[in-house]
Design goal:
Belongs to the aspartate-semialdehyde dehydrogenase family. It is a single chain. With 328 residues, this protein is an alpha/beta fold. The protein folds into two domains: 135 residues, Rossmann fold, CATH 3.40.50; 144 residues, Dihydrodipicolinate Reductase, domain 2, CATH 3.30.360. A six-stranded parallel β-sheet has the order 5-2-1-6-7-8, sandwiched between helices. A six-stranded mixed β-sheet has the order 10-9-11-14-13-12. α1 packs across α8 and α3 crosses α5. The longest helix is centred in the last third of the chain and has 16 residues.
């Protein structure tokens, strides 16, 4: 993996991926950086060298070993299948995740799925990834029957414009003034507030984000009939997603047994004693942090609190780990 292309290099995920690559073991001979027309011309510094970001174009991907796509669905739909004719593509958009011909991969959970790729590998949703990493080892031992989850998702998961909106609104809140939200990407004020809607709500009452967590989790775990109850909430946090999760299992489970299993699980850090994790603790880390592990209402149920950096393990780190699977 010596010739690398990144489409969406100026976005939050693209920038995070560049930082991870800069500190990685890879000896990169050629780096091609792409973005949409509005970001073309931007200069990016990588390993003491300046690179110009150019507008994404299919023919410019010829000769690369791998392409990372961190673009919105419309651009992914347009470019990914064409670029995949030249090289493997790891795509962060939701466009191909549920396509039966496209593997949806979390390396700690289903690394073997990458073997079935046809040059497109989908990177899951930034909430789905920490969820499946935490529940997968428990499923292997106790058999998952049902998941109840509420996510608390930071604004960076919605992109740079959303992050800037929160920072802008915070300035007004600090002065006890009401911010102008007329141009906000959110349905309401986000500062000093929580929004129980992420994406469009369908006729059944589920939001787009809730459907992603349900359908992607089933696909990754290989449990198409798994019952999942999901509520996704946007919160005024800059970086770091959290989930309050209760699982119901086929076998009896105890917090002690669950913690012992999670302590051995790849990519998981479990709090000891009465310690707890917050989204701030997860920032700039690649692991999924688990705390508040406790018995549910019955001996078949377990509740836990999960935190992860949505830009790293929820996006860029997972993509880089997929690439390592492809080129190991």
């Amino acid at each position: 993996m010596k010739k690398i292309a990144i489409a969406g290099a100026t976005g939050l995920v693209g920038e995070t991926l560049l930082r991870l690559l800069e500190g990685s073991e890879y000896q990169i001979e050629e780096l091609r950086l792409f973005a949409s027309a509005r970001s073309a011309g931007t200069k990016v510094r990588f390993r003491s060298q300046d690179y110009e970001v150019v507008q994404v174009s299919v023919d410019l991907f010829q000769g690369v070993d791998i392409a990372f796509f961190c673009l919105e669905n419309e651009l992914a739909r347009r470019f990914v299948p064409e670029v995949a004719k030249f090289c493997p593509v790891i795509d962060k958009s939701s466009e191909f995740r549920l396509n039966p011909d496209v593997p949806l991969v979390v390396p700690e959970v289903n690394p073997g799925a990458v073997q079935n790729h046809k040059n497109i590998i989908a990177n899951p949703n930034c909430t789905t990834i920490p969820l499946v990493i935490a529940v997968h080892p428990l499923n292997q031992e106790f058999g998952l029957k049902e998941i109840f989850l509420t996510s608390f998702q930071s604004v960076s998961g919605a992109g740079r414009t959303s992050l800037e909106q929160l920072l802008y609104e915070n300035e007004f809140i600090a002065l006890r003034q009401k911010p102008d939200t007329s141009d906000s990407p959110f349905v309401s004020q986000i500062a000093d507030n929580v929004l129980p809607q992420i994406g469009e709500i369908d006729e059944s009452g589920n939001s787009a984000e809730e459907k992603k967590t349900i359908l992607e989790t089933r696909k990754i775990l290989g449990l198409p009939e798994l019952l999942i109850n999901s509520t996704c909430v946007r919160v005024p946090v800059t970086i770091g997603h959290s989930l309050a999760v209760t699982c119901r299992f086929e076998k009896r489970i105890s917090p002690k047994k669950a913690v012992a299993i999670l302590q051995q699980a790849p990519g998981v850090i479990t709090a000891e004693g009465g310690a707890l994790f917050t989204p701030l603790d997860s920032r700039n880390r690649d692991e999924v942090l688990v705390s508040r592990v406790r018995q549910g209402a019955t001996e078949y149920e377990l509740s836990l609190w999960i935190c992860a950096d949505n830009l790293r393990k929820g996006a860029a780190t997972n993509a880089l780990q997929i690439a390592r699977l492809l080129f190991k």
